[in-house]
Sequence to fold (301 residues):
Amino acid sequence: MDGLREGLAARAHSWNDLDPLTAFLREVELHDQGEAMIEREDIRGLWSRPSFDMASRTLGVWDGSRIVGDATIDLERRASVSIHPAGRRQGIGTALRQWTETRARELGSGLVRQTIYDGNESAVEHLARAGYTARDTSLIMRIDISGPTALATLPAGIELRPMYTGQEEHAVYELVDGALAEVSGRALKPFEDFAAATFARPDFAPDDLLVTADAENLSGAAHLTRFGNELWIGYLAVARAYRRRGLGRALLQAAFASAYERGLTSCGLTTEASRPAAIALYRGAGMRVDRTYTQYALDLG
Fold:
């Protein structure tokens, strides 16, 4: 790979790299933002998606047996680049960024995107020098969990419960991914890809996927995962025909209650600044903005 100093080697990741890559990314996150958020199963979930080709979408830079740099292009053509603090200002970040741009072109994308923690000033400056411009802001919102949460009163005929495992997976997929498509304008991802990130995770438990439902349809869903002392809401969606009836608030409060029952001290999620209605919902439920990230993009021409 061009741009790397002597002694460094670049190659696509393999499954043998899962644990060292997890440890590397957590170390980088802890250094850059004071908190390690990524978990082993997050990486495994991405790599397990049938549509995800590790050979063409991942690249690690190694100094002997130690990983010092990582780049990935996910299925939405979003790039992520991470450099070990001790390996910075050696051209690794530039080489990996250029690799993501080349790969994005080869994958047929006219745009490459990276989302950077706003406190990481050196990364922001690096992308600005490379011609990237700010496009959107992502917010991490959190609520402290110090006691039991009262559950919301549901509309008549609607219940809130865990998904029926082995029966409702496809219905949940259609509900959640359909709602996300409305927001993003993208086509639905394959069911198998969605499953790999949710109910096919090895650490999945039935109460990790909450739904609201009436006698005929699922109307809402929330996917929950745990990392450390926090419960993370990965997906929260309400079907269009059931909106403005309090189901989103009910799912949030059920997630808060689940966090307390699991002995966790906070509950969090991520959303975009371009979704004011969602932000108002989360604030109304007591959540606060904890930190911000900006999405930077480069038109590839």
